[in-house]
Fold:
Amino acid sequence: MSTSQRQPRFPLHRRDVLKGGAGLAAAAGLPGGLIGNAAAAAANTLVIAAPATPQSLDCNFDVSLGTFESIAALYDNLLEFKKIPDPKQPGAFREDTGDHPDLPAGLAIQGKLAESFELDPGGKFIRFQLRQGVKSNWGNELTAEDVKWTWERKFALGALGAFFLSTLGLENKDGVKVEGKYTVSINLDNPNPLLAKLQPNLYNPIYDSTKCKQESNADDPWARKFLENNSAGFGPYRLEQLQRGQQAVFKARDDYYRGKPAIDTVIFREVPTSATRASLLQGGAVDIAQYLQPLEIIKLRGEKGVAVDSVDASFMIWLELNAQIEPFNNAKVRQAMNFAFPQEQVLKTVFQGIASPLNGCMPNIYPGFTDKFWTYKHDPDQAKALLKEAGLSSGFKTSLAYNAGDPVQEPIAILYQTALRDIGVELELKKIPPATFYNTVSERKQPIIFYVDSPWCPDVGYSMTLYFNSKSFVNYSNYKNDEVDALIRDTARTSDQTKRLAMMTRAQEIIMSEAPWVFIAFPGYHFARRANLKGFTYYTSNNIRFQDFSREA
Amino acid sequence: MSNLVTSRPVLAAASAVAKSEDTRLRRLHFFIAFLRARPSFAVGYAIVAIVIVVALFAPWLAPYGPMTADPTVYLLPPGGSHPLGTDGAGMDIFSRVVFAPRVDLAIAIIGTLLSATIGGVIGAVVGYYEGQRAWRRAISTLVMRSADVLQAFPVFVFAIALVAVFGQSVKSIILAIAFVNTPIYLRLMRIQVLSVSKLRYVEAAYVAGASDAAILRRHVIPNAVAPLLAQLSVNIGWSVLLTAGLSFVGAGVVAPTPEWGSMIAMGFQNIVTGQWWPSVFPGIALCITVLGFALVGASVEVLADPVRRRVLSGSLS
Structure:
């Protein structure tokens, strides 16, 4: 179990690799050995080419790419959004995150580990009735104590858990009450409209407290060391093997309460280069190639045996204009930077038309989004006029930092550099290694820096809080507006969705006018797979869940 | 009478000039014959000459700005108004390829000259004092063992580490190249000086009361420098490759500076999707340039070796 060095049990032979066709050359470059198409051909085995294996399996601390998929496989949440067919992509599904005033809590939400739930219309408490007989991967039954321990761990360890506590306004661990063996409630001092919406969040799963307590000791009372390399959850898979930098292997659980998933074994291989991942999929050596570049997606769409599902997503890409660094402390300069950005051309060339314009400051798939305040169509003359008004008619010199690991960022930066030259702005480009890029972003010392992100909770208040609340850790543009802060605060204190939407519309108007970002694109979510693999479902956390998939004969 | 007195030195000077011109002419004829006998070396000189000319006249040869991105011509294949196509940011590859040697050669030549100067001087001093008084011998040993330590690191990894320490800039790459090459010149010069310093004319200068610095400067270094010159050309080609390698892994020049390694890095992702030209053309240019410098280096090695030159003279005459 866990990080053992046992070899995965899947039928992979060198002879099979030689049959791999176009994927062979790319497969030869894989770390840790070769992948044969026999593995992909096995009906109950799924081989995924991913940019990274999980760094840690503890979702309280780690937000690396591979960790997302692992958490979704190993753990379950109390609630989930109902699934609906994707309106644009035939055969694909997505979470129904829309407003449903006719449904309880106004949401299309249903029990997962919880059999049922009761939400206070005032938004001050939520009570869960847990399913009985649900077993963890260690054989321990789910009880209300597991839910309480999970929330207590957030209080004790802080980090990402503290984010959930502060977002909900849960100030005291006694707010989580065990009301019976299978009944538990979360009680707040103040109403919070996110009480139900945050429950399906990928990083808000329930732990098997019995196992975790067994693995705890005086130095590590919350089983940090154990959960970094192992899992103790109620999800559909268990971890068979984790070799960081090479692969993680997951096995379906026979005793999963919703029935054993169709895919028995999942091999999650690290393939750092997107071109190699695309090549492996094209050659049939893997079933899924994650995080591909626009040109690769376009090319794979026409390949036999390969399918690409493209859906609207919560992803956004933008440039943070640091409002505490001159001249970006002046809103007119920030507006000029937006008018100078050749958005249409970037979408057409770098994104090959598979992205849509970022014409607002939150995901356009969430209720409450509006594009009516979008004014920044490429207009160098308007940009020059704004710079003149800001007293910078002769231009200025600044720098833009971009992530060397994201191939779309460099060409966007170069196109922007050329466009800014036309209005007298000299832009120096700084290439930041992927390993240190996030640190560079969070230091907030760069005048301009790329950022790609998505708010996982499909809520207007949540989205705006993340990026524009002056106290938010994720407000990397150092944007501060007292009216926006007040609107965000008031929105978090009322469950009246009409009032919330009105306040957040006003906040969006201010933000779009003051332009703390250079708005680039909604890149969408593009899922490249073998054509016989079915069941793709889009989640707002922008990751896949192995249990959704099955293979056509 | 006075005319006779003044005309003798004039005649002597004229005779010397004629002799010198004659020598130059003979050397030129020998060089031409040498290149005819070894056409591969002629190719090397031609390549280097062309690369230098292209670098000098790049602003007139390039039809577009090397750093001008035009999104309307994104990833155009070779042909028409863009003979080598355009890259993923809409920049003209031909213009960038002809501008690139300005950066690559400048970095390589400055870095190599710097390392040859520093390594040559240290090597000369170390070689000259080796075998003398104890403390000087100790210093010499210390210097040589330090060079051993430097050379124990893989050159490319060491260069990446140096650029990481100094920060990503052209200056840092030059420093990195100078640093990793210095031990090569240090060793070469030391070996030469060890043999030259034992020759009679050096001893004669010492007996005549010349200082160590004067002996090194006038008698030792000029007679020991030939192998360093041969190494220079090889090293310039190698440094072009190192510069490109550093840029390829993201530790070299800052984008969108026209530089072959950086261009290959920008374009290699597109090969899988069928757009081979953004990386293949700069790759070819890099390959040809390094080959040119290697061939020139090989020819200098032959010419600088008196024994091989004598054999060659015999076969050419």
Remarks:
- Chain A has a mean pLDDT of 88.
- Residues 201 and 470 of chain A are 24 Å apart (CA to CA).
